[in-house]
Amino acid sequence: MAVVKVLEIMSNSKKSWEDATAKGIKKASESIKGIKSAFVQSQSVVVGDKGEVKEYRVNLKISFEIL
């Protein structure tokens, strides 16, 4: 029987939601071993004064096995 823990994190990128997701998983994998999956719970953007998208954000749920 496997025991899986879920950790919620927020990540951001100036390029895209996909890049924010990849950065979040990569950073989490530096200290968490055995990551099995990630679920994008929500996406949002930061909008500048002139209506431009300044930053993409994702809230991720990362699942990993506890050994």
Structural commentary:
The chain is of the alpha+beta class and 67 residues long. It has one domain: Flavin-binding protein dodecin (Dodecin subunit-like, 2-Layer Sandwich), CATH 3.30.1660.10. The chain contains 1 helix and 3 strands, in the order E-H-E-E. A hairpin with a 5-residue loop joins strand 2 (35-47) and strand 3. It is elongated, with a radius of gyration of 14 Å. It starts with a strand and ends with a strand.
What's the short story on this structure?
It is built from one helix and three strands, in the order E-H-E-E. It is of the alpha+beta class and 67 residues long.
Describe the largest sheet.
Answer: 3 strands, antiparallel
> Helix-strand pattern, N to C?
EHEE
CATH superfamily: Flavin-binding protein dodecin
Name the CATH class. Alpha Beta
Radius of gyration: 14 Å
Q: Which strand order do you get reading across the main beta sheet?
A: 1-3-2
What is the second-level CATH architecture?
2-Layer Sandwich
CATH topology tier name: Dodecin subunit-like
Structural class: alpha+beta
Distance between the termini: 10 Å
**Average pLDDT metric:** 96
